[in-house]
Amino acid sequence: xxxxxxxxxxxxxxxxxxxxxxxxxxxxxxxxxxxxxxxxxxxxxxxxxxxxxxxxxxxxxxxxxxxxxxxxxxxxxxxxxxxxxxxxxxxxxxxxxxxxxxxxxxxxxxxxxxxxxxxxxxxxxxxxxxxxxxxxxxxxxxxxxxxxxxxxxxxxxxxxxxxxxxxxxxxxxxxxxxxxxxxxxxxxxxxxxxxxxxxxxxxxxxxxxxxxxxxxxxxxxxxxxxxxxxxxxxxxxxxxxxxxxxxxxxxxxxxxxxxxxxxxxxxxxxxxxxxxxxxxxxxxxxxxxxxxxxxxxxxxxxxxxxxxxxxxxxxxxxxxxxxxxxxxxxxxxxxxxxxxxxxxxxxxxxxxxxxxxxxxxx
Length: 362
Description:
Blueprint: E1 2-6, H1 16-28, E2 35-40, H2 46-53, E3 57-60, H3 71-85, E4 89-92, E5 106-111, H4 115-118, H5 125-140, E6 144-147, H6 150-159, E7 167-170, E8 189-193, H7 202-214, E9 221-224, H8 230-243, E10 246-248, H9 254-263, E11 264-269, H10 278-284, E12 290-293, H11 296-301, E13 307-309, H12 315-328, H13 335-342, H14 347-359
Parallel strand pairs: 1-2, 1-4, 2-3, 4-5, 5-6, 6-7, 8-9, 8-11, 9-10, 11-12, 12-13
């Protein structure tokens, strides 16, 4: 069975969706019953190179596409490639297909969240309207849906009841055990790794960290991730100047991320809206304390073994709650519960679930 995959999220500097795809594909390509062909805008990342070297065919347009307007040109290229390679399934990992793709193949999409509809303030009116209407069109031509959590499935079906009639599977997200943990002693700092944006709560974290220092907290704060919003960048500059104890590392590759996980004292993930939260599981492999916002998704994927702070209030209360959580978090982790959680997301377990889903009706 030949599966064509829209792999542009993996083309240059992958974050959540790109890593989701990479970890699943790395396992699924081992299945002799499945043949994969990757379609992307650019083929610059080490992840794309890995698949090329593994013998997977890669079609690259040769130009970056950054916004919803230019993505139409990208999908005209996708249509051209699909006509040439004639797959059995086209897998759209980025949820939305903005135009009808003609061909004798089934379409599978991954739905990660409904945030552009739930939280339009983080995405802008234009993209939120684009997402809402494009997904409705996409679902009309979708044969299979992969969800990253049961919560995402429930919310999707709330906004789009027609999704209930489409064959689906909750595949979660693969979070592999680190091949080699960096041999670095803990330096005790507070750590955030993820996109630098307000949806991820980075603005809240920075304001709470300032409050934390005012309350007598002494740990340094280290942040790493792609800077996506100018106002977050300005806030980072201002609070770094006022506290003198913040380090920002921008986007980091896997080796440096592993070093940060190994040497931090506590990982802080104050997301205001989250479809899964892959870094939370990643850092649990290192047996580090974790602080998250008290969102329902963390109840589903992690349970009760990490620290939470109340986010269902006004911003001032959120800031105070997070600052206090950074002062008073449980430093000792429950190793057995951590092991139980992390092993749910092993490659061999979840790839088998997704493989069986793909093959079961084809």
